[in-house]
Amino acid sequence: MIIYGNKKFIQIDFENEEEIEMQYAPMIGNKKASKEDKKIYKGIINMDGKIIVNNKIFDSPNHAALYCINNAGSPRKTVNGWTSWKTKNGKNLHQLRMEYLQMVNKN
């Protein structure tokens, strides 16, 4: 924890956690596409929490993930971006958020 004046800041040092990746295999007919047809999308989390994918800025992980699956050909209207996006270490955004909240609650 870092303390500046009367304000406390929690410093989290997740290695390369600002870089996230999402993989999506669209359905072909009624079966999932092969691993070779899987689309891989990379995103960057800004300091303000917004996600940039293909030079587009999204306010939420859900909107960023929906853009990706629609770009891959899915007609879906919803997706859980908190579990779809993963870091290089394999953690999804929900897991990172839970780790952060546990650290905050300890202090």
Kindly report the average pLDDT value. 79
Q: What kind of assembly state do the chains in view correspond to?
A: single chain
Largest sheet: 5 strands, antiparallel
Percent helix range = 25-40%
How many domains?
1
Question: Can you walk through the features of this model?
Answer:
The chain is of the alpha+beta class and 107 residues long. It has one domain. The protein has three helices and nine strands, in the order ββββββββααβα. It has helices at residues 61-71, 81-84, 93-106, and strands at residues 2-4, 7-9, 19-24, 27-28, 31-32, 39-45, 51-53, 56-58, 86-87. The strands form three sheets. Strands 8-7-6-3-9 form a five-stranded antiparallel β-sheet, covered by helices on one side. Strands 1-2 form a two-stranded antiparallel ribbon. Strands 4-5 form a two-stranded antiparallel sheet. The radius of gyration is 16 Å and the shape is elongated. The termini are close together. The model is unreliable at 1-17 (pLDDT under 50).
Q: How would you summarize this macromolecular structure in one to three sentences?
A:
The protein has 3 helices and 9 strands; from the N terminus they run E-E-E-E-E-E-E-E-H-H-E-H.
What does the secondary structure layout of this molecule look like, with pairings?
Elements: E1 2-4, E2 7-9, E3 19-24, E4 27-28, E5 31-32, E6 39-45, E7 51-53, E8 56-58, H1 61-71, H2 81-84, E9 86-87, H3 93-106
